[in-house]
Amino acid sequence: VQLVESGGGLVQPGGSLTLSCAASTLAFSTFTMSWHRQTPGKEREWVATIASSGGIRYYADFVKGRFTISRDNDKNTVYLHMNSLTLEDTAVYSCRAGTNYWGQGTQVTVSS
Fold first, then answer.
1. Mean pLDDT, rounded, for 92-112
2. Could you give the 3-state DSSP secondary structure of residue 3?
3. Buried (b) or exposed (e) across 6-35, using 16+ Cβ within 10 A?
4. What Cα–Cα distance (Å) separates residue 39 from each residue in 75, 87, 93?
5. Are the C-beta atoms of 7 and 104 separated by less than 8 Å?
6. Are 51 and 57 within 8 A, CB to CB?
7. What's the pLDDT tens digit per position in 17-61?
8. Which end of the chain is more exposed for a tag (fewer CB within 10 A), N or C?
9. Is 38 exposed, middle or buried, given 0-12, 13-18 or 19+ CB atoms closer than 10 A?
10. Cβ-based neighbour number of residue 86 at 10 Å
11. What single DSSP character describes residue 42?
């Protein structure tokens, strides 16, 4: 399974970004998908998870009400819609399929 993230970039505080993660596998719809993030010198932290069908979603407390995870199983893609971004959201964001497969990550920088 190969995962390729995109959509990162530079955004001002209070702005929005949508990240995408495209999966190569035809079994995408069977995977629970999640987003994680990491900043230099800190451990990677979990951000959000979406069940295979998309009907169940979980969020870390620090993104509740600001981020939304979604997926399109026809496009083998999972998304992370990020609103009201703060400086503390600056990180490399990576997606994960199940427990074993990781993407390379995409950089999100929040700066004025």
1. 97
2. strand
3. ebbeebeeeeebebbbbbeeeebeebbbbb
4. 29, 12, 9
5. no
6. yes
7. 999 999 998 899 999 999 999 998 999 999 999 999 888 999 999
8. C
9. middle
10. 12
11. S
For 13, phi and psi rounded to 5 degrees? -55, 135
CA angle 19, 24, 28 (to 5 degrees): 80
Cα within 13 Å of Cα(12), Cβ side:
1
60-94 tens-digit pLDDT: 999 989 999 999 999 999 999 999 999 999 999 99
Contacts of 107 (CB under 8 A, 6+ apart): 8, 9, 91, 92, 93
Please report the sign of the dihedral spanned by the C-alpha atoms of residue 64, residue 66, residue 72, residue 78: negative
Residue 23 DSSP symbol: E
Question: Residue 105: its pLDDT value, please?
Answer: 97
C-alpha 76 chain-centroid distance: 14
